[in-house]
Amino acid sequence: MSLGDTKLTCSVIVVEDEPLIAADIEFAAEDAGCEVLGIARTIDEAFELLEAKACQGAILDANLNGESARPVMDYLEEKAVPYIIVSGYLRSQLDLVKEETVMIGKPFSLSELTDTIRQEIYQKSKCANPDQSEAAE
User: Residue 69 and residue 41: Cα distance in Å, rounded?
Assistant: First the structure.
C-alpha cells in the first residue's frame, strides 16, 4: 500500500532527535496511512506539539540527546494515546520502557516500522484502519 492509495486516517507525532532517522520514521508513518503532525527533537518540542495538536499516536525515541523521553511516555499513557518506541538501546538497557510497550530497535527496516505502526497505532487508537477504509470504498 502506498501513500497515494491511502487516505490519511490517523494523526501522529514523531519524537526523534536525529534528523535522518526522523525522516525515515515520518516516511514509514505516512506509508502506514498516517498524517505526521510534526517532528519534535526535544522533550520541550514534544510537549509543544502535544499541547497544540491532538494526535492519535506517537513514534518516539526513548533518549533525546541524553534526556529520557519518559515524561512524554507518561503524558501519552495518561491521555491513552498509543505509542511506539524506536531506540538504539535494548529493552534491558531502558528501565523507563514498560514491558508491554512496543519497541523497535535501531537500525530498523522501513517495512517493519510501517507494519508496526499499522498494527499498534491503528489497533489501539480510534483511527480507521486504512485496509478497512479501502475495502469500504
Answer: 11
Could you check whether the bond before residue 107 is cis, i.e. omega within 30 degrees of 0? Answer: yes
> What kind and span of H or E run contains 83?
strand 83-87
**Structure confidence at residue 44 (pLDDT):** 97
Distance CA 70, CA 61 (A): 10
- Those residues with Cβ within 8 angstroms of residue 54's Cβ, 6 or more apart along the chain or in another chain: 11
CA distance 32 to 50: 21
Residue 58, strand partner residues:
13, 83
Distance between CA atoms of residues 92 and 116, nearest Å: 20
What is the Cα gyration radius of the chain?
14
What's the pTM value of the predicted model, to 2 decimals?
Answer: 0.85
Nearest Cα neighbor of 22 from 55, 74, 54, 61 is 61
Task: Indicate the residue type of 118.
Answer: R
pLDDT band at 99 (very low <50, low <70, confident <90, very high): confident
Cell digits of residue 87: 531506540
CATH of domain 8-130: 3.40.50.2300
98 SS3 class: coil
